[in-house]
Amino acid sequence: MIMTSEEIIREYRQAKTPLKQIGILADQNSCSKQVIVEILKRGGCTLPQQFDPERNRSSLKKKVIDEPVNPALTETKVKSHFCSARRTITKLIETTESDEQLCHQIEGVLAMLWEVIS
Hints:
- About 70% of the residues lie in helices and about 0% in strands.
- The chain contains six helices and no strands.
């Protein structure tokens, strides 16, 4: 966990779209949506009726399984591309001042990485 329970609850309550915020908080804290939900419940937050922590996970698994992988890529080439992307992202974190700009740049790096491996 990166954030405290109080920070998670505050971020959730301030969110424009609480349903999406659960996933965002889970990603930010490197934990499951269910962990975030438990924290929110203990904090007295009301959760959206349609929340299902497993819903998005199964569709993501299906997408990843169904996506074709470039057969020309060897394991070594894939590792090389991931290491390069990791170094680039680390450098961006060290040099970028704005969180918004950093997120945009990291999205670009990940998009380029996806293009290479798919």
